[in-house]
Hints:
Mean pLDDT: 95
Amino acid sequence: MINLDGKVALVTGGTRGIGRGIAEAFLAAGASVAINGRSPDKGAATVKELSAGDRAFYIGGDVTEKAEVEAMVDATLVHFGRIDILVNNAGGSTGFAPIHELSEAAWQEASAWILDSCFWATRRVLPDMLQRHWGRIINVSSVEGSQASKKNVSHYITFKHAMNGFTKAAAFEYGDQGITVNAISPGAVETDLMMAQGPAAAESMGLTYEAFKDGYAQESAIKRLNTVDEVAGLALFLVGEQAGGITGAILPVDGGTGL
């Protein structure tokens, strides 16, 4: 059983979906968790629903803005006094289109949302981890970070690939300081974000949303979508002491899609 008593985690995009599931798993293991999100209403509701008392703390902020990412790290340090675990979960894209029609705005948004936010948060949290020579950083990537099998999402594919590269670079730089850096690459999980953005992505491919989801399921060995709990279970293992020898890994939770 993984015991996180005394540990503090910051989870970006933690009010819903995969981030929420990871936050719940960490809280159940005894950690205190700062949960980031853009909506104060969702943040307040999440903290109430988690019923974790003072161990759950909501921090508002838009991860596409460097100043807000840095502020959320700083606020966590002020509130809890330390950060042992960082989960860079927030990330996505909009403006789905073939490359020759993809807008500059959509490209830059995806860069900030997926890659830049990961860099900003990691850079800000590392000095605190280095003081204790211990830390766990998890970047939530995607099955699309190791392949290119969908049209009209080149920006998402590109920056998830880049996130994986950043994961390896950070793991190499800080492995001898007791800090591990890994990425989890989920297959399709029907989160709130997928339900919000999936229909537009499907439409750009000439598919219904149901056909879009089924395409992911049929590509996998398990012939279904993955679940939030499956991703959260791996995240929980990676932050435990037994996973101290795992770093620089890009670990799939994709039902065998990458086989």
